[in-house]
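Board notes (copied after class):
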Amino acid sequence: MTTIAVTTWSLEQTAPTDLLPAAVPEGDVRVVRSEVPSPEFSRFLYASVGGDIRWTDRLGWTYARWLEHLDRPGVETWVAYDRGTPAGYVELEAQDDGVVEIVYFGLVAAFRGRRIGGHLLSYGTARAWDLAERWPGVKPTTRVWLHTCSKDGEYALDNYRRRGFRLFDTKVEEEPEVATPGPWPGAHPA
């Protein structure tokens, strides 16, 4: 099995004032919370956004596993729509002691390079900071963190830094090289 070196960068914000919002893109771009846990929709987003950048860890999840994950307090999915079409998403997950992780963030390939990503990341990060307001029993956010890696889009790390995230850890590990799965079995990414 062939392996590749993958660099993973972990970044954080420790105060809401760390967020440096991007400009709102022109046109009819809206960000809406997907409030009903929907394994079908979440798997669609995951596979559509990550299919060309080797997101594979959740592809084998069953319907029940998706539902279990999505139905937990403090897990939120925020979706960017461009003229009514899903363009990308950000998934938030409340953790212990006021920490919120941006677990997944990205755009469908056809929507990249149109200034939607900076706006979606800004919006999603702001929602991470006010997450406890929507979830009784979840502690107020004191830290928002995420990780990105060298397999993600070429502008991902720069986008996080431009939004005010600071690097706190870097790791390089060998991983098995996997084929880019595309958004569904047998599809070829754009």
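Comment from the instructor: Helices lie at 39-50, 63-70, 116-129, 156-162. The beta strands are 3-13, 29-33, 75-82, 85-94, 99-107, 143-149, 166-176.
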